[in-house]
Amino acid sequence: MGIKTVSLCPMSGMEKNFLETDMADECCFLDKEGSSGYLDGKKIIEIAKKCKVDAIHPGYGFLAENWKFARLCEINKIKFIGPRSSTLKRFEDKVEAKKIAKKLKIPTLPASEKPIKTKGDLFSSAKKIKPPFILKAQRGGGGMGIRIIDNQVDAGQLLSLTLDIQKQMASGFSDIDFFLERYLPQARHIEFQMLGDGKKVVHLGERDCTIQRRFQKLLEEAPSPYITEKEREEMGKLAVKICQSMKYEGVATVEFIMDTTSREFYFMEVNPRIQVEHPITEAITGIDIVEQQIKVAQGERLAFSQEDIHFNGWAIEVRINAEDPHKNFQPNPGKISKYFPSGGQGVFLHSFLHQGQEIYPFFDSLLAKVVAHGKDRKDAVKKMKRALDELIIEGVETTVSFFKMVLKNKEFLKGEFNTNFIEKSGIIKELMLEPYLKKKIQESLIEGLTEEELAEMIFNIYKNIKKEAGQIKRPVSKWVNYERFNMIQQ
Fold first, then answer.
1. In terms of Cα–Cα distance, which of 439, 355, 350 is closest to 395?
2. Tag placement on the chain: N or C end, fewer CB within 10 Å?
3. Is 273 considered catalytic here?
């Protein structure tokens, strides 16, 4: 777009570690170790004024949803690339966003009408809504500040859980207020990508973000394999309606939760920022969402209407994190010793990685986003499998092996899953079992067994895990057993 850029770096001497500091025209230092500098709005404004910048893009970090920072930009006559601070203030507040939705007759889940401030508020809301419900941060996102209460708990346990989420919120959000909301144990998470220029609002279709762990999105796809065309049209209209009511300016995501037992859907929240998973929408629409966001910030109007938006094929994104799925997703910082990105037709890699790079423990563990775009879902899955096979990241443990197992799962391949998929599929148990099996083989504790006996023993363990998840429905032949042995051996 021909726009000069200034990047931010925590401290002097670290600039060679980050790709963005090499690519930007200028680099400035926050003079704070770790992520704390990126949350220091006043320091960022100070740097922006010194560098005489016209605008600030907050990315998809916490400041992207911080209305106070947006207001600080406005006061200093620096364009905040996002919605107006007044809009951000209302949508950042999930309780307020629900009130807006209700006025527009958009369905919402039962929830506390105001943030929980006292013990009395907590207990009266809990009595009214009844488990299962969620304790949820009033402001924030990224799956932080959420706890499920799915059975009867006493007053002491409930208070303990509220203190726990408030501690987490204090480390990343602007306050520690929370509210209660009905929990749907069998649900699909559907979100719509929005674009607005202050007068016109359009949606760019939906994304299915149901594959989650601890409310953290792991795999997303567009379109959703679950909703019908009628449901898609209805949700899209409601998403446009709520953004239009605020004369929305910029990009946003309107999020819905769908009960798979009744097929009823409910408004959850508006994320008034760019989302990590936006590339899959770009893949199927051909629209550069960040470019549109910047153009709107420059005062331009959207050059297309809803009727001009067309969808092409299917796209899937997986988030490659520096976490060890064999150790229950334990964070795994370190140094990248080898890196080879996957590519080819229909495969896109969004990453800052390079060989020799330090992966620090105080930043988000996301290393790369792998996107596969195919003519249909089957083709996109095929391309994603190839992309993960080609991708090489050594020096830190990553979630690549986890996604390889997800892409082989029958329920996933059929599109029949809900937000509890990861916990109930048995995938994590299988991954945690692999190092144990390798160790047993390496220690020769099973010497003397024939290959067929070894395969049978290994598969019996595997079968028991699958049985717990309710996936084994028929006996497996000796040929499949033998194939399993070959897989373990490799």
1. 355
2. C
3. yes
Pairing label, strands 26-29, 6-9: parallel
Task: Examine the fold and report which residue of 164, 182, 200 is the final residue of a domain before the chain moves on.
Answer: 182
User: Are 353 and 299 within one domain?
Assistant: yes
Domain of 121, in residue numbers: 110-182
The one-letter amino acid code at 170 reads A
**Which residues, 6+ apart, have CB-to-CB distance to 89 below 8 Å?**
67
Of 70, 87, 92, nearest to 79 by C-alpha is 70
pTM: 0.86
Report the pLDDT value the prediction gives residue 469, as an integer from 0 to 100: 52
Q: Which residues pair with 392 in a beta bridge?
A: 340
- Residue 95 has a CB neighbour count (10 Å cut-off) of 20
Catalytic residue among 139, 188, 273, 319: 273
Query: Are the C-beta atoms of residues 190 and 235 closer than 8 Å to each other?
Result: yes
DSSP state of 399: S
Q: Which two tokens stand for residue 452?
A: 């067929």
Which helix (H) or strand (E) covers residue 412, if one does?
A: helix 410-414
DSSP letter (8 states) at residue 365:
-
* Bond from prior residue into 272 cis (ω within 30 degrees of 0): no
Mean pLDDT, contiguous 10-residue spans, the chain (490 residues): 92 87 91 81 94 94 90 97 95 93 96 85 84 83 72 73 68 72 94 97 98 92 97 98 96 97 96 95 97 96 96 98 93 95 95 92 92 98 97 97 95 95 89 72 59 72 62 52 53
Report if residue 206 sits inside a domain: yes
